[in-house]
Write a structure and sequence with these properties.
heterodimer, A: Rossmann fold, 10 strands, globular, B: Rossmann fold, 6-stranded mixed beta sheet, 4-stranded antiparallel beta sheet, 10 helices, elongated
């Protein structure tokens, strides 16, 4: 679904992304982890066609991102836990708004949206003002807003930070369901408990790939109990404390 | 001695109950954690303790004084670091420290000494002239903490100081809190991150305005009753669907590399072997210890 070859991005003399080679499969839940300044955001912006690489190639869903940034944007959805919904609008109005934003007609989008609504158990909440929804349902609604145009690829930015554990686990069940049905899910997060839900994670450091793999296998091969410990081991908590 | 004592505290925003029957005892000299998700009531509770909330139900004593009657005396003796960035972004690091020092009436000589001491643990001295708005998230939090400490309070109250900060800076922040504790400062700190519970000596778990668990992190985990298993598979989705269809299981969680299965009773190997026969992609199982998140989930029920 996504492939980068020798991807580089420089800002002046600063190398933000350094020779990154990535392959992300269809229907995979893939996590980008890294401290601030590790190159996570720069990479994601390039994958979305929002930033041009200094060198290297990126293919997303069979499209060359540098040559077809607009087509790539249409093939992805984006959800952030913060600011994605209008609290004063009802659930259904948020969906209509996002359908418009993605430039498709409500009639064309309706079948897809209806099936998402029933899949995520949102029917009874659509008439309520969005600010009055329980947190877990707000999240589901913002996810559906990112999927109104039925993209094969969806980006989640810290989707469950600060949410109660019950709502978080339910939300990840929804995400797993999406992946099971063939969507590719890219997660960008600081939160190591979110990393546990990814099929594979990439930990970046100074623009480069530090480790990449399945959370369980990474934890076992580095002899740590949690992703948090793995991250600190790799991203150098020892340096920060000294 | 308790530095904070809360008895049967209740508070509502209009009709929306924010806190219900909250009881809390924070002993002197410890790191005490308030742990719970967004909108659990942590900030409301912290504001009440910092004498910033006119509650009508219950009682709060801070450093032996009543929070409603002696707010001025309490404020002079505690350091409060609010959730949102509380600094002046267009003042430098040094100017922010000066400002908060003067606000608390610290004289110029003591202020200078305190600033030097605070620089030693924050490592912010090389950035003394930098504008607060140009610091990284982790450095801003260290500066906000330093400003809360400039008048040498005996108790500091920190509202989600590590929120939105990357894991490495979070770790560094906690190590600073541990060194403050060594100096005898009592610390009350809130966090939405369950994994930060282990940094605290004592914790209260908060959900929907109520305390759902209290004690040392080890005691809370030890009180978790039940069995938790980790299942491995080459095809997790397939195994998950198979297990989902077994009506006897309700506590099932699919992670990226493993499935966790919780049960009130011990599950026998023969049961797993039987499953394996029906669903060969089940490759292994082992009992694991619950995390703070597992404990929190159980207490929510």
């Amino acid at each position: 679904m996504i492939e980068t070859i020798n991807l580089n991005r420089k800002f002046g003399s600063f190398t933000a992304v350094d020779n990154l080679n990535l392959k992300i499969d269809k229907a995979e839940i893939f996590g980008f982890l890294g401290a601030n300044g590790a190159g996570k955001t720069t990479t994601l912006r390039m994958l979305c066609g929002l930033l041009t690489p200094t060198s290297g190639t990126i293919t997303v869903n069979g499209l060359n991102v540098v040559k077809n940034p607009e087509a790539v944007k249409r093939s992805l959805g984006y959800m952030s836990q913060k600011f994605s919904l209008y609290g004063d609008l009802r659930g259904i109005e948020n969906l209509q708004f996002y359908t418009g934003i993605y430039g498709i007609s409500w009639t064309a989008a309706k079948t897809n949206i209806k099936s998402l609504i029933s899949q995520f158990d949102l029917d009874k909440y659509l008439k309520l003002k969005t600010s009055e929804l329980p947190m877990g349902y707000k999240q589901r609604l913002s996810l559906v807003c990112a999927l109104v145009h039925n993209p094969p690829l969806v980006f989640l930015d810290e989707p469950t930070s600060g949410v109660d554990p019950k709502a978080r686990r339910e939300f990840w069940q929804v995400i797993n369901e999406l992946a099971y049905r063939g969507k590719t899910v890219i997660v960008s997060t600081h939160f190591m408990d979110e990393a546990e839900y990814c099929n594979r994670v990439l930990i970046m450091q100074a623009g480069r790939e530090e480790v990449c793999g399945n959370p369980l296998q990474l934890k076992q091969s580095h002899r740590v109990a949690t992703m948090q410990q793995l991250f600190l081991k790799i991203a150098g908590a020892d340096n920060a404390q000294s | 001695m308790n530095v904070v004592l809360v008895k049967e505290l209740g508070f509502a925003y209009g009709l929306q109950a924010a806190l219900q029957n909250v009881n809390l005892e924070v002993p002197e000299g410890l790191i005490y954690g308030l742990i719970g998700p967004d909108s659990a009531g942590k900030t409301t509770l912290i504001r009440a303790i910092c004498t910033l909330l006119p509650y009508k139900q219950g009682m709060i004593e801070v450093l032996g004084r009543d929070a409603l009657k002696n707010s001025a005396a309490i404020r002079a003796q505690i350091g409060y670091m609010p959730q949102r960035f509380s600094l002046y972004k267009d003042l430098s690091v040094e100017q922010n420290l000066e400002f908060f020092g003067r606000l608390f009436g610290v004289n110029s000589q003591t202020r200078g000494q305190n600033m030097e001491k605070l620089y030693r643990f924050s490592h912010l001295k090389p950035f003394a002239k930098r504008l607060a708005g140009n610091l990284s998230g982790g450095m801003q939090q260290k500066l906000a903490l330093s400003c809360a400490l400039i008048h040498t309070p005996s108790l500091i109250v920190l509202d989600e100081p590590t929120f939105g900060v990357d894991p490495v800076s979070r770790m560094e922040f906690w190590s600073i809190l541990h060194s403050l504790k060594q100096e005898g400062i009592s610390i009350l700190v809130s966090t939405p991150y369950m994994d930060e519970a282990e940094q605290c000596d004592l914790i209260s778990l908060i959900d929907k305005g109520q305390i759902i668990g209290q004690g040392s992190p080890a005691d809370i985990l030890a009180a978790w009753s039940g069995w938790l298993y980790r299942l491995k598979s080459s095809d997790l989705q397939n195994l998950y669907r198979f297990l989902k269809a077994q009506s006897c299981l309700d506590d099932l969680q699919l992670f990226g590399g493993e499935i966790h299965l919780g049960s009130d009773s011990q599950l026998s190997d023969s049961l797993f072997i039987n499953w394996q026969r029906q669903c060969p992609c089940l490759e292994g199982w082992e009992q694991i210890q619950p995390s703070m998140e597992d404990a929190f989930l159980k207490m929510m029920k």
